Amino acid sequence: MARASLLLLLLAALPYALAASVRHVHHGEDNTCKQRGWSQVPARAEDTAVVEAAWMAAQRAKTRLLKDSTCKLSKSSYAIDVHRACFKGTTRPTKAGSSYLLQLSAVVHYTCGTKRTPKALHLQATVEVSISGSKYANGYELKSLAQLK
What we know:
This protein is of the alpha+beta class. The chain has one domain: Nuclear Transport Factor 2, Chain: A (Roll). The protein has three helices and seven strands. It has helices at residues 2-19, 31-35, 48-66, and strands at 22-24, 38-40, 72-73, 80-88, 99-112, 117-130, 139-147. Strands 1, 2, 3, 4, 5, 6 and 7 form a seven-stranded mixed sheet that branches. A hairpin with an 8-residue loop joins strand 6 and strand 7 (139-147). Helix 1 (2-19) crosses helix 3. It starts with a helix and ends with a strand. 23% of the residues are buried. Residues 1-19 form the signal peptide.
């Protein structure tokens, strides 16, 4: 019973720990989302879907795009800068069992090699967010990941 309580406590704290590494920095209203028929996600630090999706995309980008086992997410103030977050449709669903697509444009900061050389990777990711009914237990599936020039 104590282990289950500890696990639930750790899961509840996870978005806050990740939020310390993810910064949503969109600069005002952007027509890019609207032109695609998507809606822009307002920049809010407590948006757990954006934080967790960005973190997952950054981890996958390390193995798929950098292909350098010495690279780690930067330990500087923010490792991931989300420049744009869009969702498909006009309102994000909140009902348990529903899902929606979230598209992120971000810069991920890594350090690589023994000298910890800084690198920045510009990426775009599309993630399917499945609503579980619990604020901290949504499901995330990476649908696409691309490096931007």
